[in-house]
Structures
1.
Amino acid sequence: MKSKLVPIAALLAAALASPATLAQKKYDPGASDTEIRIGNTNPYSGPASAYGTIGKTITAYFKMVDDQGGINGRKINFISYDDAYSPPKTVEMVRKLVEQDNVLFVFQTLGTPSNTAIHKYMNMKKVPQLHVATGASKWNDPKNFPWTMGWQPNYQTEARIYAKSILQTKPDVKIGVLYQNDDYGKDYLKGLKDGLGDKAAKAIVAEVSYEVSDPTVDSQIVQLQASGANVFFNVGTPKFAAQAIRKAYDIGWKPVQYLNNVSSSIGAVLTPAGLEKSVGIITTAYLKDYSDSQWANDPAVKRWESFMKKYYPTGDLNDSSNMYGYTVARTLEQVLKQCGDNLTRENVMKQAASMKGQYIDTLLPGITITTSDNDYAPIESVQMQRFNGKRWERFGEVMGN
Amino acid sequence: MTRRASIGVAVLLVIACLLLPFVVSNYRTFQFTLVLVYAIALLGLNILTGYNGQISLGHGAFYAIGAYTAAVLMDRLGAPYWATVPAAGAVCLVAGFLFGLPALRLEGLYLALATFALGVSMPQLLKYHHLEKWTGGVQGIVIAKPEPPAFLHEAGLRMNSDQWLYFFALTVAAVMFVLGWNLLRGRVGRALIAIRDQHIAAEAMGINSALYKSLAFGVSAMYTGVAGALGAIAVQYVAPDSFTIFLSLVFLVGIVVGGLASISGALYGALFIQFVPNVADEISKAAPWAIFGLFLIGFVYLMPTGVAGAVRMLLVRFTRKGAK
């Protein structure tokens, strides 16, 4: 009984001693004078475990932030659980984070199905579901889901940009699409079709899909070649994208190649596929690529490299997911800095939705983060680039939707 | 244990089950709801594998069919949630029986492979684009959370939807367990076990082996389907990624750890598959499944007849001492 009274007495004493500071500071569960608790789920095991490195990078990043004194004097307690990319597990773990660990908000929960599973719950509980790690377009819906916000450019927008470019450069186009048979692949396909408009039915001559569990996509590439396509839209994750590029080259199929941004890493995709086999590939980007020699002396990339070496030494420097995790963690750091001492859930959402042209230095030059009350899509622009055998050459304007 | 003592234990257990959601947090209540769901699914698999000796590596598929039946009925046809549970059971009974007919020709490992094929193909079938307008494709279906019925509120019983869902699952589980107990302790249960132990002798005694085996398949699938429907309602979401082959394997792990051919084993197994992965994740982020594997080896090594078998042995030892 006695021990229970001590904190109450301390609180009373504090309240009497400093009424002014108490009035300024506002906290919701998960925030205090010393700590901000943030929840997260990531697939550390299971079919999508390659993405688990994002959670590890973010954990490492906040470790560094804490070592440097935290944000506005508060330590970041980043609690990340494994959901194995299974939606029921995500529901269970997120409920644990919200109801038991009492986090202020959840951040970067990964995967479209996993985030769909908790979408209603978060908005009913009025707990922010911030900067989710998926490129689906539905996270930008502040009217119906004011507590959910995406971060990266969405897949459909990106695919529409390719469609525009294809229509401009090739009049008699015949497109062959390779896509992963899930929400991610289908979003790209839909974006492409939307972008092509009424020309879609004629322009797309072949659509072939693969499953994440497939060993290779060789037969799919042969099928695409046989369709007579002269443009290849490659919607694969790194391993499959690399296989596709190599196979197309090896069987002598020479279409114009569009590669989805997810697989634009030189180190993880083009090098294994063969740099000489990748010449001419077109993609879009919004992040700097460590394995691209044009950023070799870039101070921001250097800082990232030394962060990786000190705080996440087992992380692969060539894996663009690690640059992604770092950049999104820095976005959150900015949001929390703006929150100041008003750490309520409402204010976190408000600050996340009031970024005006914020530049994070690991984004490509010219790409900034802008949000508002009715714009919950932080990064909306990308830039097109073409591979010259050594590095990506950016061309054209920074494009948005 | 004397009869009076066992009744005492049972009464205590029932009281504990009834009080549980008022003692623990909503999040824990949700977890225990999942335990009940898994227990029903494991009892179903146990009827097939434990009692009848047919190994299934694909029961996740029936769980998925049950879950999708419930979700589609609620989402597209506006059916009330409670009505979807028996519907899911009926659909799975038929699906299981039909799958059981050709599977009759397969024995042991070959049956395991056939069911494995079912389990491994299910997520892709659910993504099939001609079914998309029903299944929602890869995006799945979001289900509204059931609220406690109005008559409870009028009667002055206030509970939130998590607590209500727990009691709903508890009621369904109780019904399913009583049904299972009735089925297995009598003629049917003995026939199933006889087929498992020596099917030629069983047939010589006049047991229609083919019929019983496909019935076992159907009933087993029905249990798992009921569990799937309950699970979908509890999680409020179904998607193909929820029902990977891993789910089927976890079910098999559950019945072996809980205790083959044991009704109470289903409950122990459910507790294991619900909580041990979380414990493992807390011990090591880097290799949670390696830790899970250690637990598994430990359990199998220390309790070769499952938790139910170990509990039975302890009880026997305890009562013998008491008798002296």
2.
Amino acid sequence: MSETFRKLKELMIARLRLTLGPEDITEATKLFGPDGLGLDSIDVLELVVGIKKEFGVEIIDRETAEKVFTSVGAIAEFIEEKK
Amino acid sequence: MTDGYPCSAAILPHSYPFVLIDRIIEREAGKRIVCLKNVTFNEEFFQGHFRDNPVMPGALIIEAMAQASGLIMGSEQQGAAALLSRVNDARFKMPVRPGDQLVINSEVIQKFPPLHVFKVTAQVQDVIVAEAEITLALVS
């Protein structure tokens, strides 16, 4: 498990006030829908702000966001690529 | 309509009795705005909020802040409506009473279309009486 992935999980749990422990989130965990974390568009905005602050990686447009915000692992991968 | 009155900025779909901005003092489209709301004893809500102790409801101060913020986006997306999506860290520091002149300052701090986040303060005689971070969704 990469350091980025571990930090990202912590960030998500704190910023989105998830009632989950880090062990409940895997790289395959989906962000949306009932079988995922069930996030909404405001949560995504919160994540965008958090990722910029924590990793210095900016996600400006919806198109990039739609590609990146699929699973927790996909976000971690994107951050590693960009930072 | 004269410039400076909020209805002329087209994006504010509100009308009587729910226009909570009297005048736009300064506006940098897409960035920031300074608006004014004069609070008078004749406001309907003062009849019951509260009968012997008139205080402007905090919820309406937030509404005025949201309307001011929506006006920033005025010329950027004609025909769109700005809907309140989130209110963070709202604080009401002093009661707002009849005769007070609310000066509302709002600036965009984050854009992630359709969501826009604004840092907003409301002042009476240069003292901050309320502040909040407001998120609006601009939908067409």
